[in-house]
Design brief:
Order of helices and strands: HHHHHHHHHHHHHH
Number of strands: 0
Radius of gyration: 21 Å
Distance between the termini: 40 Å
Largest sheet: none
Oligomer: single chain
Number of helices: 14
Helix content: over 70%
Strand content: under 5%
Shape: globular
Structural class: mainly alpha
């Protein structure tokens, strides 16, 4: 179980760093979500290039066309497309609806992982899945109750974008875990850096419409704050967070990897409480308990059975 607990620790660390992403719109509120996404991934790509340069020749020798193609679609689905769909869903459908849909990521990844050879059967994961779903429902319950209804077409578009983001990151999580299992000669950190290089190249295409067609200018102080926010996200959330996630993906089965996504939601809530300088409400506290119970019950389901002691013949 040592590797399991190390993997869980890496998952908690990744969730703690990824939760910072939800603070970015508050810290740089003068910029659009697309501008934040473009800035974050451009910075991610730049730092990834600098870090991967000393080992570039050795890494390139171990990667073929199939691996670069995998990096391209993983970067697109897990970073560019996911963030763009998520930002659009929040703008058109609201944070409550989006968080409810995205919150089912652990369920989707865990159910897919249960189909792998030798995986824990889904019937043993039912308590964990139910607790995770209950936690997400608690998080969005009061927000949904207080949400104001807008244009039906805008809400429907937001819902479709949220579902698209759910599908996009689910495919990324499953595909990334399986590629890491195949590439034993590439470290989890190097795979994260290579993903950053490809994501940075893709972000160049996103930056053109994000900044060129944006309306209104920004003061010098706003640009400095924007640069600090996207640099922090690139280093903490993208480079360190992704490296921890990839390390965890090699240590844990896919059925347990799915539950680790809950820590991003958990830490995003905690950061929100600190930012708003308040204590959690009853529903939010119930969500924290459900999320914790979901992960612990999933760990218990993966605990190996103790070997049965062979019966010794009774003495004559």
């Amino acid at each position: 179980m040592g590797a399991t607990w190390l993997g869980i620790a890496c998952g908690i660390g990744a969730g703690a760093l990824w939760g910072l992403v939800f603070l970015a719109p508050e810290l740089a509120s003068a910029f659009t979500p697309l501008q934040l996404a473009a800035g974050r991934y451009l910075a991610y790509g730049l730092f990834a290039v600098l870090l991967v340069l000393p080992r570039w020749h050795a890494l390139r020798a171990g990667l073929g066309l199939r691996e670069w193609w995998a990096l391209a679609w993983l970067s697109l689905l897990g970073n560019i497309l996911y963030y763009a769909l998520l930002a659009t869903a929040v703008q058109m459908g609201g944070m409550a609806m989006t968080s409810l849909v995205i919150g089912f990521l652990p369920v989707a990844v865990t159910v897919i992982g249960s189909r792998d050879h030798g995986a824990v059967p889904v019937r043993k994961l039912v308590p964990s899945l139910l607790l995770g779903a209950a936690g997400i429902l608690c998080i969005g319950w009061q927000s949904v109750g207080d949400a104001q209804t807008g244009m039906p077409m805008a809400e429907m578009t937001g819902l479709l974008c949220a579902v698209g983001a759910l599908v996009s990151w689910t495919v990324y999580a499953v595909g990334n875990s399986r590629w890491l299992a195949r590439l034993g000669h590439v470290s989890a950190h190097d795979w994260s850096l290579l993903t950053g290089v490809v994501t940075g190249a893709q972000a160049l295409l996103l930056a053109v419409p994000a900044f060129l067609f944006a309306q209104g200018g920004h003061a010098a102080g706003e640009w400095l704050r924007f640069a600090a926010v996207v640099t922090g996200l690139a280093i903490l959330a993208s480079i360190v967070g992704n490296a921890l996630w990839n390390r965890m993906s090699r240590l844990l089965p896919l059925t347990l990897v799915g539950q680790m996504i809950l820590f991003e939601t958990l830490f995003a809530l905690l950061y929100g409480f600190l930012w708003e300088q308040r204590l959690p409400t009853g529903m939010e506290l119930a969500a924290l308990v459900c999320v914790t119970g979901s992960v612990l019950s999933c760990v218990a389901a993966h605990r190996p059975k103790p070997p049965e002691t062979a019966r010794q013949p009774a003495p004559a």
